[in-house]
Automatic annotation (TrEMBL):
Keywords: Membrane, Transmembrane, Transmembrane helix. The keyword Transmembrane applies. It comes from Cognatiyoonia sediminum. The chain crosses the membrane at residues 73-95, 102-119, 125-142, 149-167, 187-210. This is Peptidase M50B-like. Coiled coil: none annotated. The keyword Transmembrane helix applies.
Length: 225
């Protein structure tokens, strides 16, 4: 009972995300998580010595990164798990630190940098630029608590979307062209095997992140600027 009192705002936000998940309201959040997925491919490619040619996200929540070189096993594995880890980092950053405004503006800067370096098509360019500018403005002009709430929303959205996407793309629709399908073709094993491994790892990451997040009361007081 005490846990429920200490985290009722977080629970309410989670319920709202679930309730609105299949409505148009959630589409920008889903596209943002897809962007995190593609960004994770970009980071993995660059860190393993590859070259990123372009990144794109679409209005129907699709995304693609064109690259050459790098470690294919790492880059293919990075999409789902990387986007989840970024989302959980945003959630924990909101809950455990006082740098919410800096985190928000930092996210905006990252989006604008990615747009300048890798985005070529009109929708992806519009989404990354508008979202990036909006995040910088929110971080600069709005209060600590508003920034904290938005970061929680982004983190929870990633926490919900990624496991569902892994289940849908790699297990329920194992014949679809997915990161797990390409990993199976290039390194052996079955699509559902890699999807199952990623799903287990994602649930484990969520479990430990929530264990850390819920150690102390998380309710906002709405008193800080």
């Amino acid at each position: 009972m005490q846990k429920a009192k200490d985290h009722w705002q977080l629970g309410l936000l989670l319920v709202l995300v679930f309730a609105l998940w299949s409505t148009p309201v959630s589409i920008p959040l889903k596209i943002f998580v897809v962007f995190l997925h593609e960004l994770s491919h970009v980071i993995a490619t660059v860190l393993t010595g590859g070259e990123v040619l372009s990144l794109s996200v679409s209005a129907d929540q699709g995304g693609v990164v064109w690259s050459r070189g790098g470690n294919r096993f790492i880059t293919l594995s990075a999409g789902y798990l990387g986007s989840l880890l970024i989302g959980l980092a945003l959630l924990l950053g909101a809950l455990k630190t006082k740098i919410d405004k800096i985190l928000m503006m930092g996210c905006g800067v990252v989006l604008l940098l990615v747009a300048a370096l890798y985005v070529r098509d009109s929708f992806a360019l519009l989404f990354t630029c508008v979202t990036g500018i909006a995040m910088i403005a929110v971080g600069y002009f709005l209060s600590y608590d508003i920034n904290d709430l938005i970061l929680r929303l982004l983190g929870l959205s990633s926490m919900i979307y990624v496991p569902f996407d892994i289940l849908s793309d790699t297990i329920l629709r194992s014949g679809a062209r997915s990161d797990a399908r390409m990993l199976a073709e290039e390194f052996g094993g079955a699509t559902v095997m890699w999807g199952g491994i990623w799903l287990c790892l994602s649930l484990l990451a969520i479990f430990y992140a929530l264990k850390i997040a819920l150690k102390e009361p998380s309710n906002l007081t709405w008193s800080r600027n």
